[in-house]
Write a structure and sequence with these properties.
Elements (H helix, E strand, L loop, with lengths): L4 H12 L2 H9 L7 E7 L5 E13 L5 E12 L3 E2 L1 H22 L5 E10 L1 E2 L5 H7 L3 E9 L2 E6 L3 E5 L2 E6 L6 H12 L1
Parallel strand pairs: 3-5, 4-6, 5-7
Antiparallel strand pairs: 1-2, 2-3, 7-8, 9-10
Helix pairs in contact: 1-2
């Protein structure tokens, strides 16, 4: 079976807008809240695959409320997520920010634009993954599609195996002290 980018988009979109579907996505590793839109025009910047919008109001002292808006641009790739994927999504992020500050900024106390990149693999042959580590507004997921269905894995941070080996490997998201010590030992050689 040939799994297409459109299939990935269809599955996420169809599940992201129901409570039951969001729970299934969460169980499969992809946590989305709010409402999801597909094929969203970003004007001169292009068309985003999916855009998830989450708005909430937080009540704080003496009835004062803070209104939060989170816009998550989701860029899908059938195969490899690479620097071109990031640049494409960064353009969409800029479009949302321009629109927000032009037309919506007075309605919200807090506004955040995030980018979620999803592909079957992440390009690790270059130093691209180190750039991802520095961008706190980017999340990266890889997906697998098998007899068990669609599953997502959020990618953590990255390091090179050692100074003599250019192979880049992923470390776990929350390493233990021993794992951190092992990483530094490998870096020093």
């Amino acid at each position: 079976m040939n799994f297409l980018e459109k299939d990935l988009e269809d599955i996420i979109y169809e599940n992201a807008n129901t409570v039951e579907g969001r729970e299934l996505l969460r169980e499969r590793g992809l946590d989305l809240g709010g409402h999801t839109y597909r094929q969203v025009s970003m004007g001169k910047y292009g068309i985003a695959d999916l855009v998830n919008i989450f708005a909430c109001t937080e009540r704080i002292n003496k009835g004062f409320s803070v209104h939060h808006l989170i816009v998550d641009i989701i860029e899908l790739k059938k195969d490899i997520v690479n620097v071109d994927t990031l640049l494409q999504a960064a353009g969409y992020k800029k479009a949302v920010e321009e629109y927000f500050y032009e037309y919506c900024s007075k309605a919200w106390d807090d506004f955040e634009v995030r980018v979620t990149l999803i592909g079957q693999k992440l390009e690790t042959a270059s130093n691209f993954v180190f750039l991802l580590d520095e961008l706190d507004w980017v999340r990266v997921y890889t997906y697998s599609y098998s007899i068990r269905g669609l599953e997502f894995q959020e990618n953590g941070t990255w390091y090179k195996k050692n100074a003599l080996d250019n192979k880049i490997i992923q470390r776990i998201t929350n390493p233990s002290r021993k794992e951190v010590a092992d990483i530094f030992h490998k870096i020093r050689g």
